[in-house]
Design goal:
By secondary structure, this protein is mainly α. It has helices at residues 8-15, 17-32, 34-50, 58-87, 92-95.
Amino acid sequence: MWPWETPSEEIRGYLGEEVGLYFSFLSFLTMTLVLPGLMGLATFIGQQSEQTLQLVWLPGVAIAVALFAALFMEGWKRQQSTKAMIWGMSSFEEEEHLRAEYMTS
């Protein structure tokens, strides 16, 4: 089983929605970090082969990583809201009861 093929549905059924959503996030993060990881590996190999830290295409990698961060957040928001709707968690915070043990005065 690959790290991005986490059975979040089975985890949700066994441990609850919060834990299932956490493992769904880890699966999404692992899947989306493959491309930036390959870009970082190519940058490292390029720096080692040319014996310099300044590569011509390094600013392009920086822009791609910044773009990746923005796209990652939007993609996760979409996936999270989809999972919340399918799993019936859209009003979860409204149903959650405050526990007296954790109340602060």
